[in-house]
Amino acid sequence: MPDRPGPRARTRPRRRPRPRSPLDPPPSFRAVRAVFLTLLTGFVLLPVHVMVTSSLKPLGEVSGRFRWFPGRLTVRPYLDIWHTVPLAEYFVNSLIVAGAATVCSVVIAVFAAYAVSRYRFRGRRLFTVTVLSTQMFPGILFLLPLFLIFVNIGNSTGVALYGSRGGLILTYLTFSLPFSVWMLIGYFDSVPRELDEAATVDGCGPLGALFRVVIPAAVPGIVAVAVYAFMTAWGEVLFASVMTNDTTRTLAVGLRGYSTQNDVYWNQIMAASLVVSIPVVAGFLLLQRYLVAGLTAGAVK
Amino acid sequence: MSPHTTVRVRKSALPYLLLLPAVLLELLIHLVPMVMGVVMSFRQLTQFFIRDWTRAPWAGPANYELAVDLNKPVGQALLGSFVTTCLFTLLSVGLCWLLGTAAAVFTQESFRGRGPLRALFLVPYALPVYAAVITWAFMFQRDNGLVNHVLHDQLGLGGADRTFWLLGDNSFWALLTVSVWKGWPFAFLIVTAALQNIPGELYEAAALDGAGSWQRIRRITLPSVGPVNQVLVLVLFLWTFNDFNTPFVLFGKAAPEAADLISLHIYQSSFVTWNFGAGAAMSVLLLLFLLLVTAGYLFLTGRGRRRNADA
């Protein structure tokens, strides 16, 4: 975010000298805007507030009547979450699965988008339409068939996909592929073709042009796609709950471990939710500028 | 693709090689399973045949007859879930679009604190689904949740009996709240990106002609995001209609009838009752419905746009 000089330094000199421009919004507009944005901020922050404050309460307090702020502050939930369930193990599983799915998805999407953007070939339109139309498939339709395919591949070739991280990685990278390809096609199209022609003249092959010219020019789009792929893999629940076993369980399923038959450790659930959210939210907020830029140049056209 | 791009016809295999990994993955994860799902919907697939599903006896159209027979409980439940899902999707997409567009328009002009506010608005989108939804589940708890605390203890509404939000008819509104909270930032993100493509001179020219802030929004901003809205609304519709994660985390495996979205309903019909053939038939019907709606939507909006372009 670019606009951030200290508030005091800014407000004073600005107020007086500038005459009112016709672009300045009138008071009625400012009032509506202020009310709307304040309410919306409250709506967005409410669960965040609950998450943070409840994670700092003792169990007795989250089990009783709700309080806006902790009566007694404690960091115990943040220590206990690692013992109640093997959270660290789930965390590592999620990191491996989401990280690998992201890297593979981006590489494969870059190649596919480059082919579609720079070449005319038979089946080009079929490919883009098919890829996009998979976005409308209900996940529930191919959950069981995919499960059976993985089991059968395991039985006939010995490559264990069901229950392994590999199977989940394959699944997740394909989930983010359609959107990534689609967005990168738009992005690559906006990179002038003369640039890669010049590179070809200079002796680069087509792949040289891709790596030396097109990819460097499309970094914001690629970052945006990577963010999207990582978030997709980190947050998926349905396939994670069917395709994993005790050793490969990811966070999406693992967090359920905090509620047992008799007790629900709400304070630990909130602490764990916060801990598992921090990597994605921090990464997302750091890179969101690229996402907006990527969407502006690529998909939104 | 713009028409003036130079068309290079290459006979080489390179583009196909570049596409190969993507095509193979799409085949393995999306297309082959989908075809298998269609085949399964014509079979009598129960847990006894799950080891080797190709040996399950053919059922003909029996699974489909079961799914659409409104005189039997299975068909009635499916129809109920379908109607609930339609209503839910309509409200959720409408509200997400409205909030997202309004927020994008209001944050278009620079003001102090706009940057942090934009980042904050994206937090619900960035949070993993299960973390966000589980927090809402806590807030909707009957005895120790925030919602009932505010309504009953602080505002004194609703009488002495505390409301159940995750059971019974109220669960629909609980689900809608969570869905809108999670979904609107995506609309905000897309519309914000689209607004950055509007040249600033347009606004200056309009302002010089005497158009106020509201008029500029109505005459310039909203018409400019029209084409983006076509895709945005479609994507929101498909995601919301197929949403499984939100009800699954909010209610667990069995959602109350008022919030029984179709994906969760099918999941339950296949995995809880072990009738995979019927579940597959329901999924195929769902896919056909989505295809029809998408095709109709694209046809209608495409025609509308062309007419506007002609005028």
From TrEMBL, chain A:
Residue ranges of the region described as Disordered: 1-26
Main location: membrane
Compositionally biased residues, Basic residues: 7-19
UniProt xrefs under Gene3D superfamilies: MetI-like
InterPro entries from the UniProt entry: BP-dep_ABC_trans_perm, MetI-like, MetI-like_sf
Pfam family, one: BPD_transp_1
Start and end residues of each ABC transmembrane type-1 domain: 91-287
Name assigned to this protein: Carbohydrate ABC transporter permease
